[in-house]
Amino acid sequence: MSLLSSLLILIIVARLLGQVFARLNQPAVIGEMLGGILLGPAVLDVVQPTPSLTGISELAVFLVILAAGLEMRFEEVLGAMKGAGLRVALLSFFIPFFAGVAVALWFELDAMRTVFLGLCISITALPVAAKILDNLGLLNTPIGRYAISTAIINDVAAMLVLGVVLVLPPQPSFAAVGVSTGTALAKLLALAALVIMLNRGLAMLEKRGYTVQVIPERLVRWLGPEALFGIVLLFVLAFGSVSEVLGFHFVIGAFFGALLLDKRHFLASRYNELKLTLDSVTGGFLAPVFFAYLGLKFDFDAIQDWGFVAAVLLVSIFSKILAGWWGGRLLKMDRRESLALGGMLNGRGVMELVVASIAYERGFIGPHMFSTLVLMGVVTTLITPWLVGKALPKARLEAYRDKWDEARRPPAA
What is the pLDDT of residue 326? Predict the structure, then answer.
C-alpha cells in the first residue's frame, strides 16, 4: 500500500475512533491508539509501520510536545514547585517510580528497561489530566489544582530524567554512569539556566515598560498573520537544536522552548489564533497519526509474559492511587477526596507514550516492553474518570463542585 493510502486510512480511522471516545467523555488519544492497533499487524494487518510513517510520526512528536509545553505556564511550573503542591508531586513521582523499579527487579530486567519502566509509571500527563478535570467540572477545585501542579512537575521531571538517560553509555559501568550523569546534569542545568535567563530578561523588559507583544506583532505586520505559527516553530526549533548540540533528544529542548512561551508574549487574539492553528495541525492531523502509529507498533505476540503485564498494570494504578491518597491526606482532604486525587493522577496518555516511543526508537526497550507500556497508557487513561467517579459518586461530586464554585464567587456588595 502506498504512503498516501496508508496515511489517509490511518487518519480517517484514528479520527473516527477518537471522536467516538470523545463523545463518551474519554480522551480521544485512546480511540486513536486503538485505531492503529486495529489497522496494524496486531489485528487486521492493513497498514504496516514504514520508515516514511516513522518520519511523519517524529514530526508529530515535536508538535505534540510543543502543544504540551504551550499548555503550561513558566510561572505555574515555578509556583507548583513550592509548598504543599511540591510534596504531592514528589510523592506521585517517586512512589510509582520505585514501585516500577521493584517490578523490574522482580522480573530481572536490565538497568535501562528498569529506568524506563519506572519513568513511564511515574508520569501523569498534563493534557490528559486537564481534559478529564474539565469534563468532570473539577478544574477549579483543590483536586484540580493539585492534580495539574502534580502533572506539570511529573512531566518536567520525566523530561529531565529522559535527558540524562539518553546520553548514558550503551554498556555502563558505575564509574561511566557517574561521569555521564554528572555531565548530562550539567548540560541540563545549562539548558534550564538559558530558559530561566530568557524568562527573567523578558520580565525585566516588561517592568521597564517595553511591551514584548510588539515583537510578534511587527513580524506579523511584515510577514502576514499566517507567519505567527512559523515564527513560534522557528523559536522552538532553535531550542531543539541547542538540545541536540548538548547531546540530548530534540524534544527535550523543544519542550523547554515551548514552556518559555507565554500568553503575555502575544496579544490575546494572536495567542488564540496560534492555539487554533496548532490545534488544527496537531489535533486534526499529526497527533492522531502519532498515536495511531504507536498502535501500529503494538504487537500481542510480542507480549510473552502476561504475568509481567498484569504486575505493571496493578502497580501503575495502585501506586498512583496511594501517592495521591497520601498527598491528599497531607493536604487535609477527606478520604474520598484524597482517593479522587489519586485516581485523577492515573491519566498517563500523551507524555508516557512519547517517552516509550523515544525509548523504543533508540533501542533501549524491546517490543515486549513497548507493547506493555502502550497497553498501560491505554488502560490507566481509560479508567481515570471511572476511578474518580468511584471515589466521588455523582451526588457528592456535584456537592464538591458547588462548594468550590461558591467559594470562588466574589462577595455580594
Answer: 93
